[in-house]
Design brief:
The structure holds three protein chains of three kinds. Chain A is mostly helical. Helices cover about 65% and strands about 0% of the residues of chain A. Classes of the chains: A mainly alpha, B mainly alpha, C alpha/beta. Chains in contact: A-B, A-C, B-C.
Chain lengths: ~350, ~300, ~325
């Protein structure tokens, strides 16, 4: 990825509204020269702040700053376009594949590409191209629904734990530890092996169940950090209630890390679903899934590699697109990681 | 130090109980262990009743769990589907998986840290960009895809490795499976090391080291590297869980008779003692490994106190 | 008196996302052996950047030196080979940073970080270097030095940590020390102790000292001369007493007037109106003109050179200069 050297606000600074634009040092004019000013905090890149204090016209906020960055980031543009395409064919596969993913012609089993069938045929003589297109639906549905569920549940529980602390925080942390104690693939095998339905929903439910602790840890840590910022303390001192403080002052500033982690998790959840389907416990036929197709293709890799190539390629590109998107979003929201 | 370890071990107890109970709940409450024992045949009612009694299946779940744990701690993990004691399966399987994991960890740490440091020091240059791209691609290819493809290429096409590992599973045969297992983690290790190096490279203490007139290699090896390894070590703790999960896939592809293979068989045949027994041990391994990683962490970073 | 360091027309640029920032736009100052020069300025005035450029520790990229000379004993440091430059750093000139907690390596003992100076520059054995480290800690008056040599930076108080930084700087008895706001991060009560220690060691080893600071109070006590910086440029240079008595630049006067004084109690404190400029777009002409009470048309259009200011009171201390078209009027005001 191209990573130009650029000046930018530290995320911590950008989070604090007081540090935008002119900056406190500049606003107080010669205050700093009197020697009575507060000791400055540690400066990782002195030039960065010094230039900033010079007073850039119109200080941008974290979000518009991030958006400004994203629009210029080719990684973001490419991955967003790929994801847009994937979501489109997940909703409307007929748009680019007019065949039937379930119907096969056994006479053509494992045959290579033919006119009108660019990816060839699978073991049951079904068109690999059509099945690859239709497979997007399962992966995208699982990825988006599981991430949404885990992110909502995780940030709600983690956010409340971080904000209120006390026994609820302790209990939640221990609970998260319990879920962390089980490797996710292992839990998936055990949990899903007793489920007979082959649809996406048990898989989504399971990923939410084991995925929320990761988000909740991030959300908790983020809320705890933001809570200590002066402007939140100030809001509380001015008599803002808990609800208002949490929603108006903390949530908007604490949500950035959650978004970053959730976007990256989306890609890994899609890979997880495919792995579980590969192992025979995730999605099951007749659901069309890349994982299932790769599993049946892996036995035939010697005589029909095209059966493996296309669904595996589609899966990898999908995962790659979401991970790249998460990467770009993280770079935009947290420039310190550049 | 001693007190810290003791405290950590005590903290592990509720997590251990919680995790194993969760698995126990999934297997015993959601599945039907008795029906599973008989496979497709309908069980003889008298036998079924006797088995239910043996396994305390008529008692409440927590009581079943307590009985089960009682047996486990006296060394009885029950019987596997083929009539072998589960402990025998374990004795055969764990050394194999341990070897596999060692190959994976050595591979991902040695190569990952090296690549991460090199690209972190050359931030924004050609090497850095290609390493970053490569890691993204590697992360995006799930283990079961890379495993299948590499097995085909190395094992069948080029004949450089055995496509299927023998039951004894010596180190030499585990090289390719170990690399497959560690591949995704390798990408994470590389990226994490790189980020950490980039961040530490502009830390004030590095600037001090430059101002002291130290040669570059000394600044990197003595000042930068140790600070940069701290987050990598933390990652190793969580990664052990991922490797244990990944072993199920890798062992399936390469037909390695390790923990993942036995667990997979146990799950397929719905043999509850095998599944719960293996998972119990894995949870213990995971917790102990994390404790060791935390101790290592404290060795690397003197600011962490054993309190 | 021998000229130790002569900085001439030093220019540094930062390439940023929003454009090229002119962090130093031709800075000149000089330090004589055994003397103290205070470089005074607000944040963003370029005082730290100039120190880092002299030391050769700028983050580059994004920073790059685009012009000028840094003459050390008459030799230009900027044209030396990296190897030569490195042998100067730490040995002939050393630096003290503002925040010792982040400037010391958190995972190495202070003893190891001190001993390293001898091991690398002098090839001293590990055992001897360690003994020298203990001596150094004694020298900067760290109590129980022998027992604390194996402690880590976080185990010391802020004042003690800054003493360790000082010890590290004087380890090889350099001719020049650059101290970048050495007391800013410390408690007020400790500030004076650390400053006194630094001044005492400077006298003892006859070292030159560049003291980067924004604190006019510190300057008066220890400095021989002052360079006032604003927006990456020198506004005025003068012997310290001269500058306090009769500033030759409106900016300097503004700074002096904004010091709170006991005898002015009850009166409103003076403040220079306006804000310092962005380094991305330094005003044309005199960079201070938008805020200057004395500004005329010429200040907007013509950048004032450093006018030499003839010494009126003390013929033995030349080197006064002011970057103001109306320095004469300011001097007589």
């Amino acid at each position: 990825m191209p990573e130009p050297f650029e000046t930018q606000l530290d995320m911590t600074e950008a989070l604090a509204p007081a540090a935008g634009g002119g900056g406190p040092m500049a606003a107080s004019g010669t205050d700093a020269l009197r020697g009575g000013g507060p000791p400055r905090t540690r400066r990782r890149m002195p030039w960065r702040r010094e230039i900033r204090t010079g007073g850039l016209p119109g200080g941008r906020g974290l979000w518009s700053d991030a958006w400004h960055d994203l629009r210029r980031n080719p990684v973001f543009i490419v991955s967003a376009l790929v994801i847009l395409f994937l979501v489109t064919i997940a909703i409307w596969p007929q748009a680019i594949a007019d065949g039937n993913p379930y119907q096969g012609n056994l006479a053509k089993a494992q045959e290579g590409p033919a006119p009108g069938h660019p990816f060839g045929y699978d073991l049951q003589g079904r068109d690999v191209y059509t099945r690859t297109v239709y497979g997007a639906r399962a992966s995208i549905t699982v990825g988006i629904c599981a991430t949404a569920g885990a992110a909502l549940l995780g940030s709600l529980l983690g956010g409340l734990a971080g904000f209120f602390g006390g026994w609820w925080d302790a209990l939640l942390s221990r609970l998260a530890d319990v879920f962390f104690g089980i490797p996710i693939l292992l839990g998936g095998l055990v949990f899903l092996s007793v489920v007979t339905s082959g649809s996406v929903w048990p898989v989504v439910g399971f990923i939410v169940l084991l995925g929320w602790p990761q988000i909740s840890r991030i959300a908790r840590g983020s809320v705890v950090t933001v809570k200590q910022h002066d402007y939140v303390q100030a809001a509380r001192a001015l008599g803002a209630g808990s609800g208002r403080t949490l929603l108006r002052h903390i949530a908007p500033n604490a949500v950035a890390p959650v978004i970053v982690v959730a976007t990256i998790a989306l890609g890994t959840y899609i890979a997880l679903e495919a792995t579980l389907s590969f192992l025979g416990v995730g999605l099951k036929p007749p659901t069309v899934s890349w994982g299932i197709d790769i599993s049946s293709a892996s036995a035939q890799i010697r005589n029909a590699p095209h059966m493996l190539l296309w669904p595996a390629g589609a899966l990898s590109v999908t995962v790659l697109a979401f991970i790249m998107l998460g990467d770009a979003v993280r770079d935009a929201l947290d420039p310190r990681l550049r | 130090m001693g007190r810290y370890v003791l405290r950590r071990v005590l903290q592990m107890v509720p997590v251990f109980i919680g995790s194993t109970f969760l698995i126990f709940f999934m297997v015993y409450a959601l599945g039907d262990p008795v029906a599973a024992l008989f496979g497709d045949k309908a069980p003889d009612p008298a036998t079924a009743a006797r088995i239910r009694e043996d396994l305390y299946l008529d008692e409440p779940l927590w009581s079943q769990y307590v009985h089960y744990m009682g047996q486990v701690f006296s060394g009885d993990f029950g019987t596997a589907f083929n009539g072998q004691p589960v402990t025998e399966l374990m004795a055969g399987a764990f050394p194999v998986t341990l070897r596999l994991t060692v190959v994976a960890v050595v591979f991902e740490m040695a190569l990952g840290v090296t690549l991460g440091v090199l690209s972190g020091l050359r931030r924004g240059r050609g090497l850095d960009t290609s390493v970053l791209l490569l890691t993204l691609v590697v992360v995006s290819i799930p283990t079961f895809v890379s495993g299948t493809v590499l097995q085909y290429l190395f094992g069948v096409e080029w004949g450089l490795a055995r496509p299927s590992v023998s039951p004894e599973a010596p180190f030499a045969q585990l090289l390719l499976p170990g690399v497959v297992l560690g591949l995704v983690s390798l990408a994470y290790t590389t990226r994490l090391t790189r980020t950490s190096v980039v961040e530490n490279a502009r830390a004030d203490y590095v600037r001090t080291a430059v101002a002291k007139g130290l040669p570059r290699h000394r600044i990197v090896t003595r000042h930068l590297l140790r600070n940069s390894l701290i987050p990598v070590v933390t990652f190793l703790g969580t990664d052990i869980g991922a490797l244990m999960g990944g072993a199920i896939v890798t062992e399936r592809i390469f037909n390695i008779h390790g923990v993942g293979y036995q667990l997979y068989q146990g799950i397929l045949r719905q043999n509850s003692p095998t599944v719960v027994g293996f998972v119990t041990i894995l949870v213990i391994v995971f917790l102990v490994a994390n404790l060791l990683v935390d101790l290592l962490y404290a060795v690397l970073d003197p600011r962490i106190r054993y309190a | 008196m021998t000229r130790l360091l002569d900085v001439q027309d030093l220019r540094v640029e930062f390439r940023t996302r929003d454009g090229v920032a002119e962090a130093l736009g031709g800075v000149s100052y000089a330090v004589d052996a055994g003397r103290t020069l205070a470089v005074l300025g607000e944040s963003g005035s370029g005082k730290s950047v100039s120190a880092q450029a002299v030391m050769g520790i700028l983050d580059s990229p994004p920073a790059s030196v685009t012009g000028g000379q840094v003459l050390f004993h008459g030799r230009d440091l900027l044209t030396m080979s990296p190897r030569e430059r490195r042998s100067v750093r730490g040995a002939a000139m050393a630096m003290i940073f503002q925040d010792a907690l982040s400037a010391l390596n958190p995972v190495l003992t202070v003893g190891a970080q001190l001993a390293e100076m001898y091991e690398v520059h002098r090839g001293t054995s590990r055992k001897d270097a360690r003994a020298r480290a203990v001596e150094l800690m004694d020298r900067v008056r760290i109590p129980a030095a022998k027992a604390r040599v194996d402690d880590y930076p976080h185990q010391f108080s802020g004042g003690m940590r800054q003493r360790i930084m000082i010890a590290m700087a004087i380890a090889l008895e350099p001719e020049l020390i650059i101290a970048d706001e050495p007391t800013t991060a410390l408690d007020v009560t400790v500030q004076a102790q650390v400053m006194d220690l630094l001044d005492e060691l400077r006298r003892e080893y006859a070292m030159g000292l560049i003291l980067i600071t924004h604190d006019l109070g510190v300057v008066a006590d220890v400095a021989d001369s002052i360079a006032v910086m604003y927006a990456g440029r020198i506004m005025e240079t003068a012997p310290v007493q001269e500058l306090y008595r009769r500033p030759a630049h409106p900016y300097t006067r503004g700074l002096l007037d904004s010091i709170p004084r006991v005898d002015h109690q009850g009166k409103e404190l003076y403040a220079i109106k306006g804000l310092p400029p962005s380094l991305l777009s330094v005003p044309t002409g005199c960079p201070f003109h938008p805020r200057c009470p004395r500004a005329q048309e010429i200040c907007r259009t013509e950048r004032p050179p450093l006018y030499e200011v003839p010494d009126v009171t003390d013929t033995a201390a030349p080197g006064r200069a002011s970057a103001c078209h109306f320095w004469k009027d300011e001097l007589d005001a």
